[in-house]
Every structure is written in C-alpha cells, then in structure tokens.
Amino acid sequence: MTYELFLGDRTFSSWSLRGWLMFEKFDLPVRVKMVGLYSGTMAQDLLPLAPARLVPVMRTPEGDPLQDTLAMAETLAERHPDAGLWPADPSQRIFARWLTAEMHSGFMALRGACPMNLGKAYKGFAPSQEVRADLARIEQLWTTARERFQTEGPWLFGAYSVADVFYAPIAARIAGYGLPVGKAAQDYVATHLADPAFRRWRAEGLTNSYDPEPYAMDLETVAWPGPAPLAARAVAKGPSENAMCPYSGNPVTDFLEVEGRVFGFCNSNCRDKTANDPEAFPAFMDIYHS
C-alpha cells in the first residue's frame, strides 16, 4: 500500500516540504518523484495526474491523484487513523486544524516577502509592517497552543502533528531571514531546524544547483542558523570502511571523508547529500558509529 508523491523542489518549494513531511514524519509508505518546477517541464510531468497543476501531488495506492496539502492531510488522516497526524485530544485537534487552516490560507505578506530558501540565510532583511503583523499573529497562535494545552514535548501540541508540518516552512523563513520573534518562537524555530527529517530534506536539496537562482536577494548571506553539520568532503577513492551503500545496499563507487574516515556510497547523489549533513541520515550514522 505505497503512495506516490510528486514534488517540485527541496530548497525553495515550501508546499513540497509540507507534502513530504506528512509521509516522512508519520512513517507512511511513499515513492517520491520530482517534477520540473524550475526546468519548465512541470505541466508535462503532471499530465498523468490531471487536473493537478501544482505541487505537491499525491497518488493513492488505488491510483487516485490528489493535489493540495490540506486535502492531503485530511485524506491521510482518514486513511491512517492510528498514524497520529492530528492530536488525539479533541480540543487540541480542533485548535490544530485552526492553526493549519490559517497557515494554508494566510500570512501572504510574509510568504510574499520571504520566499523559502533553504540554501542560504540572509543578513539585513528589513521586514515591512505587514510582515511584522504576520509574525505577531503567528506568535500569538503558537503561544496560545502551548499555553492553553500545557503539553509535554517541543512541538505545538507536544507530539508532532500536521500543524507542525504546515509551520515548518514558516520556521525556515524566520530563520533564513533573521526575522524578529520572541524567545519562545525562536525555540520552536530551532526545534524545526534541528529535526532530523527537516535536516534530511535540506541536505538533499543542497545537492542541486540553479542558474539563475530562484528568488535571489541582494543581501549579505550568513551561515545557516541550524545545527552545524559534521565536516565532510567528497574524495576520489577509497578504500572505505563499508563495502555497501548505507541507503541502497549496492556496492560502493563514490567516497566521502568524515573526520579522517572514509565511507562509500553507490552513487554521487548518495555521497553528496550525506556530505551536506551526515547526522541527518540515520542509516549513515549507524555505519559511522559502528
């Protein structure tokens, strides 16, 4: 019972991030396919999923296509009631849906002025009054969720839920543009940036290059504010400590050095995504710690 998930881009597509997190964080079986969001082939790539025209799109195991992350969230929750997409408590679930729906339809000033960019962080961005108003509203919603329910755990309702899925790109924007928010909001943003799933998504996105770069801004860039990755670099040859790729199980052909140790992978993409953030990939860290 495996779904198909059609995504546009990992570095810039906030909607694609939301779609992927719904499968990754709730352990739902999925095969990911990338479409040409920036190469100009997206319309052609999505023809088999008509009338879909935007990413992400999921296709159910029965073959039904579905566009729009809010519709996807409700469908997946309906089909997988034990996966925990929404909080179990009815009052929490009501407010989680509220927060999610407001994110889905709102905060246009923030989203327009600060496109998601997981490839770099900017210094010196000056938010408009409209952006500041969006940030104040977001902080109000986040604070209300935490104070009203007093749940254990770092997420909006204690355990990770669809509400956190939808606010992951907002966290990325706050971090990437250095937007002014209070301490509690900063802590919540840092929780997203440190989340292994978020880090895996970003590490894979960093394997791509763009010419021209979408949404480039004439601002000074600074180091990404998330956890500093282990230092790693591609090397031309082994031998490696492992004979098989940690992801595919295939023989190694490409090599990576981490803190003086050499590890092998079955192709350059497996190597390069790992080089971007080794600790984001549990399968690699199992080898690293063995």
From TrEMBL:
<feature type="domain" description="GST N-terminal">
    <location>
        <begin position="12"/>
        <end position="78"/>
    </location>
</feature>
<dbReference type="InterPro" id="IPR004045">
    <property type="entry name" value="Glutathione_S-Trfase_N"/>
</dbReference>
<protein>
    <recommendedName>
        <fullName>GST N-terminal domain-containing protein</fullName>
    </recommendedName>
</protein>
<dbReference type="Pfam" id="PF13409">
    <property type="entry name" value="GST_N_2"/>
</dbReference>
<dbReference type="InterPro" id="IPR036282">
    <property type="entry name" value="Glutathione-S-Trfase_C_sf"/>
</dbReference>
<dbReference type="InterPro" id="IPR036249">
    <property type="entry name" value="Thioredoxin-like_sf"/>
</dbReference>
